Structures
1.
Amino acid sequence: VAVAGTTRDITEMRQLSEQKDEFLAMASHELKTPVTVIKAYTQIFHRSAQEANDKQAAALSLKMEAQIDKLTSRIAELLDVSRIQGGKLHLQEKHFDFNELIDSVVEEIQRTTQRHQIIRRLTTSKKVFGDQDRIGQVVINLLTNAIKYSPQSDVIYVYTKLVNENQRDRIVFSVEDFGIGIPEADQERIFERFYRVTGGNQNTYPGLGLGLYICSEIIKWHGGTIWLENKKEGGSIFSFSLLLKK
Ligand code: ADP
């Protein structure tokens, strides 16, 4: 009886977990369309306000757009999670210049912050085989986190290093910040789905705890590794490695 009960429990749990994944996929799809439409309406509203020289309405609609963008990226995270869970993260792989990707992402993110300065220390350009957009997404995520969790410091370093592991050349990309850092007790679980550091002033930062999980899955799907280094002097270094073109 005990064995039968256990089997039934496992089956029920599996069914529940499948239902939860289906719900996540469905809910995020259903949310995506109306949010896209609201964004389009807000942009029309913003243009009308500008034409009517209504400064208050123009400023408010810009704020609305910024909030809609946040919502859109949360929904995108949920959609990515359901793709990963369903084994449907289809990669569009090709050879691309790694440094060119880093340069364009750094320039894009630098435009979003006045306070922080992102400093590049890149080795010679190398070709990587992978999904350029997805790897760009990982870099954006690591940089956005470095900015978000560095309220008191303003320098962020990004660098690349070439290493040879098991007779294969790899590129290691790192983002180093001097921000609030991650307590040692949390470091092991930081790449888990929905995992967020709690306590201290960590609770004041918004987020779902999905970004690093998605990053680690994207890197794993490329056959790479991603890790976090402990910094005694404060701050964090996130790195990932990818195989270089043979
Ligand atoms: P979130 O959307 O919550 O930021 P992430 O998966 O990107 O989710 O990060 C998980 C948690 O790891 C964050 O909630 C935060 O506590 C911690 N974290 C991530 N990056 C950094 C960083 N650069 N410095 C300090 N803490 C970080």
2.
Amino acid sequence: MNAVYEKLQQCYESMQEKTDFKPLVAIVLGSGLGDYAEEIQIETVVDYRDLPGFPVSTVEGHKGRFIFGYIEKVPVVIMQGRVHYYEGYDMTDVVLPIRLMKMMGAKALILTNAAGGVNDEFDAGDFMMITDQISTFVPSPLIGPNLEKLGERFCDMTGIYNDRFQDVLLKAARKLNIDLKEGIYVQLSGPNFESPQEIKMCRILGADAVGMSTACEAVAAKHMGMKICGISCITNPGAGITMKPLSHEEVQETADKAAPQFKALIHAAVTGIAEL
Ligand code: R1P
């Protein structure tokens, strides 16, 4: 058996020994957004480190555990923290959690992140619905022998972010009086923040927000046929827009402040998606 698939299968079996919970919606919480997971009706919690071979989060603000439970009767699995490529993991490990959640039954995926604003009309604390992405600055998680059980070799990347899910988000935002921005997310490898010139480059490429996660996860999820939506919390204007130095503390603080609106938006997104 292929080593990547074998590891996935092992993690799946180990998870099955801990819980047979079947989530419908999977949610990944980005930097500083993790507290939301503790506010749902929790059924089971599984620490990443209790799954042999599973990649463990090393970044501040990423607790590193799965929370299984219900958001208004909708069965969900929440990743309270993710792993990033810059932490030194192989790309296939970075997306292993996404693949595992799909194997457990999740059909829909809500990806969230903290991101820098490339579009200079965005303010810190704004939310951006991801309409498309640029993932080519990091290796594709699909490199290597194709995992036929998961998806096809040459996977289509049109409509990564599902149209109907986007409608749900827009409708929810209107109802909640949230000025939801829309735009393109670009993933760079990190861990260094972008230089002012790199922010300019991202703008030339058509990006509106920049981060170090999410796009690779969306590629793996699309490969498996998951329906995806994505929300970036713009935690700071990108380098060079203001001359203020960037810091992970600021990223976490801004995400923290945006938490109440974020919570309401995710809540509405989950219930709206479940009704489709
Ligand atoms: C930088 O502050 C960190 O925040 C973002 C960046 O990708 C980077 O890891 O984290 P998430 O994308 O996990 O939200």
